[in-house]
Write a structure and sequence with these properties.
Length: 78
């Protein structure tokens, strides 16, 4: 019968310790995307050639708000 070796160098990953740090990082990232998108909306509304692309910053803001809401709920749940 073969002898099984137990490897002691592998550390068990505890998922709860990384979850909160990731949620705060997502909140900060979403805030930067919203700040980046607001000038995009003003540029698209001022210049006529870019008016057809106003949907891009609006989509970025909507997705960032959804990310912020989900991250806030995950933080409050813990």
């Amino acid at each position: 019968m073969k002898n099984k070796k137990i490897s002691f160098y592998k550390k068990e990953i505890i998922s709860g310790s990384y979850k909160i740090k990731t949620d705060y990082t997502m909140l900060i990232f979403a805030a930067f995307v919203i700040i980046f998108s607001l000038p995009g909306i003003s540029v698209c509304s001022q210049y006529q050639p870019y008016a057809q692309y106003i949907w891009v910053p609006i989509l970025l803001i909507i997705l960032s708000f959804m990310l912020m809401i989900s991250s806030t709920f995950r933080i409050l749940k813990n």
